[in-house]
Every structure is written in structure tokens, then in C-alpha cells.
Amino acid sequence: MLKEYVPVLLHALLAVGFASLALAISFMLGKKGRHNRTKDAPYECGVTSVDSKNCPPFAVKFYLVAMLFLLFDIEIIFLYPWAVVFQRFLNHFGPQLLWSCLSFVGILLVGFFYAVRKGALDWGRRMPLNTRQM
């Protein structure tokens, strides 16, 4: 029985070995840069960082909607295998198959209505910086 796991173990050892070797070679051959205040300062998208007192509050609305989209999109992907095998399993499982799908969609709808009630999709309202309110 252990013979079946030898290829998996070999593959894992090869992956860890390659990653370790690549890091070691990079460390040995890489140039050592000099550190100074300008190089160690945070840098993002070509914009010089400024003091946080002068920055306006950053709206996270777009990112929240994007994360909700990804969340619901990934959950909807789980419906495709169900739809593919529905006709084949209909005779064997019958109503149980339909009720399992309806319970899954019900859970999705509860999450969606919760997000709508909290104003996550309301573009007219400013999103609070405190994300614990969500």
C-alpha cells in the first residue's frame, strides 16, 4: 500500500528541493543592496508615500464589492457539477437532489440579503472605515 504513495512523496520532495535550491542560489548570487531611508520607504504604484495625517480616508467600497462578487461567483461554480449530474442522478436520488440544491441556494440568498441589508452594495452611502460593522 505504501508503494502507491511513493510518487506523491517523490513529487513533494522534488518541489521542496527545487524551491530550496532556487532560494539558496538567489541568496548566494544576488547582489547585496545598500539600505537607505529612501529605498526602505513604502512605495506603491509610482506614488510617493505621504504622511497619513494629510491623506483623505481611503474608501474600501470597490474592494468590498469585488470580494463579494468573488465569494458569490465561486459559490455559484459549485452549482455546475450539480447541474451536469442532475439528469443522471434524478432517478436514483429523486427529490433529495432538488432539496439539497435548494438549501444551497437558500444559504447563498441569506448571505446576499445580509450584504444588501448591511449596505454593502449601496453605492450612494459612504462605507465606514471600520470593517467590523459589516
Describe the 3D structure.
With 134 residues, this protein is mostly helical. It folds into two domains: 2-48, no CATH class; 61-133. Helix content is 59%, strand content 3%. It has four helices and two strands. The protein has helices at residues 6-29, 61-77, 79-93, 95-117, and strands spanning 43-44, 47-48. It has a two-stranded antiparallel sheet. A hairpin with a 2-residue loop joins strand 1 and strand 2 (47-48). Helix 3 (79-93) packs antiparallel against helix 4. The longest helix has 24 residues, at 6-29. The chain is flat. It starts with 5 loop residues before the first helix and ends in a 17-residue tail after the last helix.
Would you summarize the structure shown here?
Helix content is 59%, strand content 3%. With 134 residues, it is mainly α.
Largest sheet descriptor = 2 strands, antiparallel
Our measurement of the CA-to-CA distance between the termini, rounded to an integer number of angstroms, reads 50 Å
Number of strands: 2
- Which stretches are poorly predicted, pLDDT < 50 over at least 5 residues? 129-134
Give the overall shape, derived from the CA principal axes.
flat
Give the tally of structural domains: 2
Q: Strand order across the biggest sheet?
A: 1-2
Radius of gyration: 25 Å
Range of strand content: under 5%
Mean pLDDT: 79
- Proportion of residues in helical segments: 55-70%
Number of helices: 4
Secondary-structure content class:
mainly alpha
Q: Which series of helices and strands comes N to C?
A: HEEHHH
